[in-house]
Amino acid sequence: xxxxxxxxxxxxxxxxxxxxxxxxxxxxxxxxxxxxxxxxxxxxxxxxxxxxxxxxxxxxxxxxxxxxxxxxxxxxxxxxxxxxxxxxxxxxxxxxxxxxxxxxxxxxxxxxxxxx
Length: 116
Description:
By secondary structure, this protein is an alpha+beta fold. It contains 4 helices and 4 strands; from the N terminus they run αβαβαββα.
């Protein structure tokens, strides 16, 4: 995965992917091992990594969120935490769009509390 992103993307944001019992840094190290570029952006928190990719993108960019496919949860230290990349992309896109239009609302998801 790291090699393909390295060869194909202008910007790569490397983040965790279903760490199970492994520290997120181990997952990230495995991805980085396949890369040659000196400047990948590393963000262990997957939601923040997705938000960073969306925030950094320009209107002509394509953002690819890869690695989890249809999965709707992440296993972390023996517990399953709800996490669906598709929903997170929509939530973070809406949050970004709202911040631009002045109708910002807080992000939701793991480690975030809804204020609605």
